[in-house]
Amino acid sequence: MTLPVRRGTSGRLSERRFPGWRDPLAEFDDLFGRMGSLLESTVGGALTEGAAWAPLADFAETDDAYQIDVDVPGVKRDDISIEVTDREMVISGEFKERERGGVLRRGTRRTGRFEYRTMLPGEINAEGINATLSDGVLTVTVPKAEAARPRRIEITAGE
Hints:
This protein is 17% helix and 29% strand. It is an alpha+beta fold. The protein folds into two domains: 13-49, no CATH class; 57-99 and 108-148, Immunoglobulin-like (Sandwich), CATH 2.60.40.790. The strands form two sheets. A four-stranded antiparallel β-sheet has the order 1-2-7-6, with no helix packed on it. A three-stranded antiparallel β-sheet has the order 3-4-5, with no helix packed on it. The longest helix has 18 residues, at 26-43. The mean pLDDT is 81.
């Protein structure tokens, strides 16, 4: 059995500026790279195959709600799950690969399981959560609890 060999990076900028000087963390870098190569060659990348990845998302806050916009182009609403526990929200689902005729010459689209996790910064009204899917963007609106909403105090004229 042969193991992949990681080639050293000679001619680093720090070595060119200061001849004879070696970065003290370079040995750790090298060790980390070798261990990663060994793990990949023995396990074959099985640790990352079933792992979910996070889609692109925006998280915004207004006076009365939190809004999360998640990019999920081509995903059907039945393939998306939204769960809220205490203040943690998990949006998960799957990008299914399309059936194609012929040979795929190049594929850059992500497929498989995705998962977006976020902690909501304040108290929420879990009963009022609303989710819509339009034009490949999932919009989840989470209303704040009454106690978490900012209160406007009116200033009256004094004497």
